[in-house]
Amino acid sequence: MPAGTQMFSLSGxxxxxxxxxxxxxxxxxxxxxxxxARAMIGSRTLEKVEGAVADIRRAVESEQPQxxxxxxxxxxxxxxIDVTSDRSxxxxxxxTVDHFGHIDIxxxxxxxMLRKPTFELxxxxxxxxxxxxxxxxxxxxxxxxxxxxxxxxGSIINxxxxxxxxxxxxxxxxxxxxxxxxxxxxxxxxxxxKYGIRTNAVxxxxxxxxxxxxMIEGTDRGRRILEHTPMARFGKAEEIxxxxxxxxxxxxxxxxxxxxxxxxxxxxxxIGDSFAPWAQPD
Length: 282
Ligand SMILES: NC(=O)c1ccc[n+]([C@@H]2O[C@H](COP(=O)([O-])OP(=O)(O)OC[C@H]3O[C@@H](n4cnc5c(N)ncnc54)[C@H](OP(=O)(O)O)[C@@H]3O)[C@@H](O)[C@H]2O)c1
What we know:
The protein is an alpha/beta fold. The protein has helices at residues 23-34, 46-63, 65-70, 86-100, 123-151, 172-192, 213-216, 220-227, 237-248; strands at residues 14-18, 38-43, 76-80, 105-108, 154-159, 197-204, 259-262.
């Protein structure tokens, strides 16, 4: 068991990050790369993926220039992945292995959002969202998990949400999917530990990204969220990444089937009015 900062080192590890072209997935891939891993990032939009690869490479180069110049293989690479397609995932996993030799860490960060009153939500919309978040996560876990089973080691990190625990109003499809993510995480943790695979989740609080920026920045909903958050601010994608780095590495070697909530205290806040005007100290 490594000690000191080595407990958080991902040196020699390869991470595949779906949804890695933006937001939380990109921040996780960058943090993992800075902790020594090599990362394959993917989403459906190739230009976005290429931009994120360049950004992550620049970040590693500025902190660890020798790593970029010494490496015979790149620290980060990108690929187009659609998690709703079996073929696309198989192709992405094959390309990751061709490129980096193996896969040690899978981060399932691909996701979409839909806010709609539930009477107006079609079953097709519900199924589409579920297909991306839950079936997409399952597909990626199965394909990358087979490799992890062969090598008898691996760490899977799924993206849950505050809505895995409490209702966020008019996001029923998302809430159902994010609850299912926790069930899937526990199922794999229980079933695949014997193959050397640990499966955990991270539940971010409210982090303005492409998925939700319009819903929470400068809106009444956003104001109510901040009033309910003891730290009285939104999170940053980089602040979610630390939990994923921890779960991926040796420090979390005995952590399996859990979900780390990173939310500025939102879930702890109960009636949530510590920042309301009537609760302010004089
Ligand atoms: N931001 C938050 O406050 C928050 C809170 C809790 C949980 N989360 C979860 O965190 C994860 C990341 O979200 P984010 O906030 O980082 O949003 P984001 O920046 O929009 O990232 C989501 C990524 O998923 C990709 N994606 C969507 N559908 C895909 C598909 N079918 N196949 C492959 N990639 C796909 C998107 O790229 P393309 O469109 O190019 O495919 C995008 O890069 C999601 O699971 C989200 O539910 C976010």
